[in-house]
Structure prediction request, 253 residues.
Amino acid sequence: MVDWLFIGYLFIFGLTFGSFFNVVGLRVPAGESIVAPRSHCTTCERDLSTRELIPVFSYLFQKGKCRGCGTKISPLYPFVELATGLSFSGAYMLLGWSYELIVALLLISLLAIIYVSDIRYMLIPDKILLFFTPLFLLLRLTAAPLDPWWSSLVGAAVGFGLLLLIAVISRGGMGGGDIKLFAVLGLILGWHDVLLAFFFSCLYGTIIAGIGMAAGKVKRKKPIPFGPFIVLGALTAYFYGNSLVQWYIGLFL
Prediction:
């Protein structure tokens, strides 16, 4: 039986943390504190009231504008909040209550912060990766191991090595943040699924960039952040990797 009450709690929990992930993703790469100063309008510098900090709903009630100066608020804020809330609750629906759910919630949290950071600065901060890596390592070696347990360690090596090789061959086609992120993803996913995550990241990037160029929104030879595509690819591989592999193999049997 689906526990809709707990799903609702996780959704609200995700909305709230999604708001915090926006702050982390915007401030950490800029070398700012995530504690002070208080959340404020970046245009008029006015501190935001409690009613202006309600995830998603404040954006809707204010019609996407600052109450003080009328400046448009980036839709990035409510998007990350809503996506985090839906992802938290969706993870429980797919995994149920288990130690693996903790891995999933941490993965979603990491990817939400990286999404914000890479969209705004085209940067994946080492501080964020260094914070999450020990948590994933501890879980994979104790409460939520992969089968076999060493798949996490091999996955980290494969993720790092693959991206490093591509960066060397392409002479900078992959950033250092992408390389280190795939090492962390390999730790979480194992070597099979980290390869799948890379495949889907490239696939999503090719499709979305192609659509963007066709629409005139993306210019040729202009760099675009790869982080958002890694986020999509990693989540696809994590939640649906085994099912997709089995489906693909079934096509030939």
Summary: The radius of gyration is 19 Å. The chain is about 65% helix and 0% strand. The chain has two domains: 1-97, 123-253. Residues 123-253 form one domain.
